[in-house]
Amino acid sequence: MAKSEPQTFATHARLVPGYHFITFGLLVINLGWSIYRLVKVPGWDTAVTLGVAIALGFLFFYARSFPLAVQDRLIRLEERLRMATLLPADLKPRIGDFTPAQLIALRFASDNELPTLARRVLDQGLTDRATIKRLITEWRADHVRA
Length: 146
Hints:
Number of domains: 1
Shape: elongated
Mean pLDDT: 91
Distance between the termini: 12 Å
């Protein structure tokens, strides 16, 4: 569901407490306990427990990174389509010049601000997402991202 509170550079990062803090914390504790048990009571069962703890760590990482990769692909497509509609004629041929990082950062720019900011990003060669996001004055919130 879309939220109504405004978004800014300072508030746009999304943290899910159950995932980023509780689950991660439990996985770290499990890994530490598995290492401790393997050192104190070496054996196949404790080695397998450590292997499972490591596998759960990989699962935790990939459960987040795979959806983010898909989301980034969709953002690039969405922003190229949005630019094809909003950019002036002289900038439209340059849509292919935007890097994925630039497109991902520009998604937060409002429709009114996008043409000016897109020109600035290309002309100045800005590539850092945070730098581009800081230039946005009319923030377009994205409350439904992964």
